[in-house]
Amino acid sequence: MVDAPMAQKEDQRRPPRPKGGMITMPFIFANEATEKLAVVGFGTNMISYLTTQLHMPLTKAANTLTNFGGTASLTPLLGAFLADSYAGRFWTILAASLIYQVGMAGLTLSAILPSLRPPPCDGGKICQQADTGQLAILYLSLALAAVGAGGIRPCVVAFGADQFDETDPKQAAKTWRYFNWYYFVMGASILLAVTVVVWVQDNVGWGWGLGIPTLAMFLSIVAFGFGYPLYRNLNPVGSPFTRLVQVSVAAWRKRKVGAVADPRELYRNEEIDGPISVGGKLLHTKQMRFLDKAAIVTEQDAKDSPNLWRLNTVHRVEELKSLIRMGPIWAAGIILITAYAQQSTFSLQQAKSMDRHLSATFQIPAGSMSVFTMTSMLATIVVYDRAFVPLARRLTGLDRGITFLHRMAIGFVISILATLVAGFVEVKRKDGGQTVALSVFWLAPQYCLHGVAEAFMSIGHLEFFYDQAPESMRSTAMALFWTAISVGNYMSTLLVTLVHKFSAGPGGSNWLPDDDLNKGKLEYFYWLITVLQVVNFVYYLFCARMYTYKPIHVEKKLEGGFDGEGIGNGELGGIELATNKV
To answer: Per its UniProt entry, which superkingdom is the organism in (predicted)?
Structure first.
């Protein structure tokens, strides 16, 4: 029998369990899953709620939906700023989840209380639209949900990736797999939303249909907070935007200073850069050399103490260069989101006009058609992770199989095919459904292709932003991912508005009519998006060809100590140099 003092000494010698790792994933995934259950559970069927419950015209409802999606994807910039600068990711996620909870509660009340909705249509024909007060409650609730999403979306994915120590080779390889499974969990939650939650909304009522995700959101907040002792929390290191402005100002103030011949003469300071470069220092690159002037040490700089508005380190200059290099790749994702957004607007209206019966008594809710998107996306993620990556790894030697730039390119091609097919299906729907409604399963190919495209493009985009962003700006990088979604949704609103305006003809004809799709030319709209995507793909290929991976010097944990290594962080475990291009 071991006496108490000896056992106590043994416990003292035993090193504390390192924080982070796979044990934290259930708590983090629970928060993301319920956020998606809430927003998708409402968003997928939102156009039905706005047109049938609030009696909005179709185009106004479609634009309300895309505007909400755009705003909820724009607010992550604010959330990322707060997380990276002051609060840290954990507290930002927790506070944002509470705000989201209030917004969802407001939406649930608006669906339960008759006074917050206009009365039912008189005889099914005369419909009174929602008044200003009712719309105010709706928009306020949506605004709170959008603000809450702004704190959750950029931080949850980065917070989850933070749980793996990239300086440890055993954990670094898990990072890219984390993104696949993060998206898988998110997709599974969306699948639950577009099946169970949408069915409840259509068949039981909107009170229960919104109350379920509201309750799920509350439970996720409790679970996420419960996991706090296990998390690996990285402290905020000040405003990244301030650092970017400082580099820009310093480079401008020294614009007339001659460039140095040897980059080793540029300013470096381990003490200043230490808090923002725990995972490794960014190395000097030859691109955008005008920014290097911010790191040139003049006679005045040598005399005075370091002033970051006049003199910046190489690492901080390279932070700005990294974000600038990411810009063109970021922009390429916008049109794909514009194409994807049509699934919850016009594709849903297509489904409502088609035969959705599985039996004489049961028909598929129109909002549940995105189940094809989710199942194809989930299946693609599993096949990609379990079969495609091991095979590609043998051919390329890369741990992740192919680069995220190649993965995104595959997604672009499949998305082009999806909108092309959607146009032909719309022709078939109108021509073949004049006497007997066409089966809704004709829409399955376009939904499935969008799901496959998302498994390639969106996850590749996510990996790209996290991997290529400076270490201290990863919440900001995740915000850029959601900002691309935001701009894509706003682009959809603009495109719908312009097409509706300029395609109007005599007798009320229009490509995108307000009431009856059979009177329109929706196929032309789909093919217009297809052409835009082809042009965008050519642009992307040029940007990907010219892209330079960020170079970084890291110290990897080895047996008995550390080993310094310079790598292009775009390839985990590789030794890609800054000049390598894909």
So the answer is: Eukaryota
Nearest to 166 by CA among 567, 476, 461, 459: 567
pLDDT of res. 410: 94
| Cα 72 to Cα 80: distance, rounded to the nearest angstrom | 13
Q: Is 288 left (phi over 0), alpha (psi -120 to 50) or beta?
A: left
- In angstroms, the CA 135 to CA 555 distance is 55
Residue type, 467: D
**Confidence (pLDDT) at 419:** 92
| Three-state SS sequence of 195-233 | HHHHHHHHHCCHHHHHHHHHHHHHHHHHHHHHCHHHCCC
CA distance 147 to 74: 9
370 and 447 Cβ atoms separated by less than 8 Å: yes
Tell me, what DSSP letter sits at residue 511? S
Can you give the three-state secondary structure of 422-485, one letter per residue?
A: HHHHHHHHHHHCCCCCCEHHHHHHHHHHHHHHHHHHHHHHHHHHHHHCCHHHHHHHHHHHHHHH
Partners of 567 in beta bridges: 552
Stretches where the chain sits below pLDDT 70 are 1-18, 20, 42-45, 70, 73, 123-125, 165-176, 278-279, 344, 367, 432-436, 552-582
Residue 531: per-residue pLDDT:
95
* Residue 427: strand pairing partners: none
Structure tokens at 197: 């939650």
How far is it, in rounded angstroms, from Cα 91 to Cα 104?
20
Give the chain's length.
Answer: 582
Q: What is the pLDDT of residue 560?
A: 44
pLDDT tens per residue, range 111-138: 788 877 777 777 656 777 777 787 888 8
Nearest to 162 by CA among 152, 175, 149: 175
Nearest Cα neighbor of 189 from 56, 364, 353, 40 is 40
Q: In the chain, what are the domains?
A: 22-235+319-546 (1.20.1250.20), 240-318 (no CATH)
Identify the pLDDT of residue 215. Answer: 86
Instruction: Count CB atoms within 10 A of the CB of residue 359.
Output: 6
Give residue 563's pLDDT.
Answer: 44
Say what the pLDDT of residue 119 is: 75
- Residue 569: its pLDDT value, please? 41
